[in-house]
Structures
1.
Amino acid sequence: MAEFKKQISELSEKFIEDLKYAIETNIINNDDDDDDDEGDDEEETNFDPLEYKFLTKAPKEKFMELLQKVTKSIVALSNAIQKNERSNMIRSTGDVATVFTQINNEATEIARSLPDGKAKEKLLESTSRCKTSSVQLKINISVKASSDESDDVSDLNNKIVGLFELINQCFSVIAHSDRVYNDMDFNKQSFGSSTSSWNTISWN
């Protein structure tokens, strides 16, 4: 059980690291491109990605907010597991599944205006896997939460860790989809318009 909790805790930290990369690379650095003040690097490195406040409701920022929201739910789930709080485990994993569904829906909408290529394909594949795997995680967490102290849950714990790892791998791809976020910046003023002229470079 101790090893299981350690693995979940370490994986939740990886989600935070990936979220931090996404915000720093695609939000903060974009905003500060023309700002040469000394001390910027330290300020950027020290920010808390879970508490970062987005300044606009542009499509990219809205998508990043969803990544932040699901990471908070992952952390809440990890904390509930550490404390054996069964009701919070069920609630948090339900939130994770719900937000990953929102992320997948948002990515599908965004992709309609993105140029074809590997970046787009990887984003859609990863968001879809997160959605599917988070539902499986929800089921397995519910089983674990309803188990008795005397039950052997070693196999179940392994399944949960495996799903955590898979979701984290896919989340990392989403967080590092810099080309997708660059395309969203390229013509964001026309985002969502059927007549928008996107960057048509193929990333194949």
2.
Amino acid sequence: MLGLIITLLLECIYFTLDLIISLLLECIYFTLDLIISLLLECIYFTLDLIISLLLECIYFTLDLIISLLLECIYFTLDLIISLLLECIYFTLDLIISLLLECTHFTLGITILLYFH
């Protein structure tokens, strides 16, 4: 009978220790799983943020470069067209002035020769 009681006590102690160890291992596993999941989530969030900021920076830089290039092209074309128009205006003005001066001179000579 004493052997039966000792066997039951040992069986109870074994069951209790097995249960405590299983619960501790389950708790450790759950905690490690939670820590690893949070770390991976943090890494994912950080990488996503870094990539988003880099892409935003690249977009902003390209937008700025394209805007400056277009502004430079617009300014250069505006300057070239203005200079061409000014050159055309000056040339036409010079031709018309010379033609008028030549006509005036020719008429003056013709009138002088006619009345002379």
